[in-house]
Every structure is written in structure tokens, then in C-alpha cells.
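Hello,

I think I submitted the DDH job twice by accident. Can you confirm which output corresponds to this input? Input:
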Amino acid sequence: YFYSNETTPSWKKVNYNSVYKDIAGLLEDEDYDDGSYGPVFVRLAWHASGTYDKKTRTGGSDGGTIRHTAEAGHGANNGLEHARDRLEPLKKQYPNISYADLYTLAGVVAVQELGGPTVRWRPGREDKTEADCTPDGRLPDAAQGADHVRDIFYRMGFNDQEIAALVGAHALGRCHTSRSGFDGPWNASPTSFTNFFYTELLNSTWVPKKWNGPFQYVDKESGQFMMLPADMAFKKDSEFRKYVEKYAADQDAFFEDFAKAFSKLLELGVKFPEDAPVYEFKTLE
Ligand code: DDH
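Support: Only one job matched these inputs. Its output is below.
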């Protein structure tokens, strides 16, 4: 009779390289959005983590609470069910992975497989109950400006440089009127991880969109690309703008800073087991 199995924690029973490959296999789908679940996986990982409050040490990705109705139902999380539903078969295939690890790992896979940097990631988050969901209002409001963005991200423990690096994720994906009310992608290659958020922000002329929807900007030239009011804060605010100019000019610097800040985001508030290894997954072909 071997009892060693009983004492092995679930997180140690998972082959994370294998989960990485299987998540990568779920990215492409020509019928979904721009052909990839990558952007919405990144957003799921970010919203799962971005509820962290360093003062009360509540929120964050630990617990995987974004899957519970109470938190999934927060307005900012509209549409993230597409990402969770897409990943659900992997939870069945790997019953020992926590949702919290699965959702954060999906963000890492998406960043890497869409052409971004290697993001260091550790397993060992544990799922918690609905009672551990955070209150609504911890994620940023896209209609507001620099002061609000700072309030939200300083609460998590980020500085201006890290905030400016993180928002570069808006090179990916799009806004959906059915989810946030806003409309459109930020650039012409929403399924590639690039520094185009910064280059577009600086190089295009942004004008208010004429429509009945919420106030947002479109590029004057084509009208196809968008910026949120909160995005424009990174151009208007001189401290944020320093980093925007740096990342627009130097994609390597952006990749390096994004990888660090994104990894930190996914670990906010997590109490990892002492022997949890750090993975640097190899990007697939
Ligand atoms: Fe974001 N984001 N985000 N965002 N985000 C939206 C989409 C995506 C804000 C608002 C919105 C980050 C920061 C901010 C991604 C990643 C990240 C949408 C549109 C809104 C609104 C949702 C929809 O309609 O589907 C605001 C405000 C901020 C801020 O104040 C800084 C950060 C830090 C990240 C990150 O990942 C590190 C991604 C990816 C998307 C595209 C999702 C998709 O489905 O496509």
C-alpha cells in the first residue's frame, strides 16, 4: 500500500508542458473574432489577477474566483465566458490543475504563441469558493483618465513604468459593443503581440468617434482603429508618455518590461508552495 500518492499535492501531478501545448492548440478558430482566442485568454488572465489589493491582501489570481457567478458577472468581465468555456475541456483532461493556474497559464501561452516574450510562470495556485470573490469595481474603468488608472494599478502595487508596459497588451484583440460597449481593434494585427499599441498611439491622429455609443477615439485616417479614453491618458500624461515613447522606439525593451510586469501581475497575492518551480516554456513552432 503506497500512501505517497495521497500526500502529493494536486499541482504536482500536472504536466504543465503538456497543458501549455494543449492550450496552444485551442488558440486558433477561424469562426471566433479575428481568428484567435489568444486576446481573450490574455484578458481572462489579467482580469483574474487585476483584482488584487495590496493593503488588504485580497483578490488576485489565487482562488480562480473569476469563474464564480458573483465575479464573472462584474461588468468588466463581460465576454470572458468565451475564454473560460474554451478552456473547460482542459480542466476535464487535467483534473489536478486549478482553475487559477489554468487561466493564468492560458494568458502566458497566448502572449508567447502570438509572438510575444517568454513569460515566467509558476504553478500552485489553489481554487477558492464564491465567498472569496472580490467586490465589483477593482478593475479599471475605460472611460476615465490617468488619475483613475494610477489609483487602480497602485492599489495592486505597480509603478508608472509597469503600468505603461502592461497596457501594451492592447496591441491584441478588440473591443466588442456587446461586452464593453466600445468598438474596434487597436491596430491592423490584433492577433500578433507587437509594440503597435505605442506606435499607433503616438503616430496616428485620434479623433472622437461619431456614434451613439460610449465616448471613444478612432484614427482620423481610416476610422478602423480605436483608443479608449483610458488609453489616451498614456499619451497625455507626461510620465506615462516617457515610457510610451521608449516602447514605441524599442520593441525589445517593451517585450522585456512586459514579460516582467505580466508575470508579476499573474502572481499578485499568490502564496506559492515553496517548491513550486518557475517555468519558462518554449514557444512552439
Ligand atoms: Fe484591456 N480592455 N484595459 N488590458 N484588454 C479591453 C480589451 C482588452 C482596459 C479596458 C479594456 C489592460 C488594461 C486596460 C486586454 C488586456 C489588458 C476592453 C474591451 C476594454 C474596455 C473589452 C471588450 O469589449 O471585449 C483599461 C481601461 C485598462 C487600463 O486602464 C489600463 C491590461 C493591463 C491588459 C493586460 O493584459 C496586461 C486585452 C488582451 C483585450 C482584448 C480582449 C479581446 O477579447 O479581444
